[in-house]
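Q: I'm writing up a methods section and want to include an example of the input and output format. Could you take the sequence below and give the corresponding predicted structure tokens, formatted cleanly so I can copy it straight into the document?
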Amino acid sequence: MSFVGIWVILWMFGGRAAKRRITLPRMPLIDYSPSPDAARRRSYLKRYTIGLIFLIFMLSFLLFAFGDRLPDQYTGLLEDSSALVFGLIGLGVVVLLGLAGWATGAPRLLVYAGLGILGGIAAVWFGVNSPLILTALGVVILAVGIALLIRFLQDYSMPQR
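A: Here is the clean output for your methods example:
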């Protein structure tokens, strides 16, 4: 656990050096013109995000405040309340990833949301360990990020000096 701080410090300095050497010199080569409906999508994203946060907060509050008054067939859900809260948070993250993918036009975020849903299904139905699912999702996201970085470097190669 104590090595986490070392990785954070290394990442901060290494990330800054990589940004200065890889990303910043290529910034003038990229066309940043937004799509015609980008503003509309962002406004929808803000509204849906606020609504989703409010919905998750209200569901969590109602389960906390009135969970003892539920009918008997639903009380089994509340026996492990931490799993229920993490499930609600996970569902919120998946929906936010989907909304962000739709609003920004980044299809990889939609894929990440789909993988999150599949990971949740695997955890519930097949009894797969949650840290294993999160690690697998992290490996997939890291592989996609590396592939995007390689494509970025190929598409926006620096002219020879």
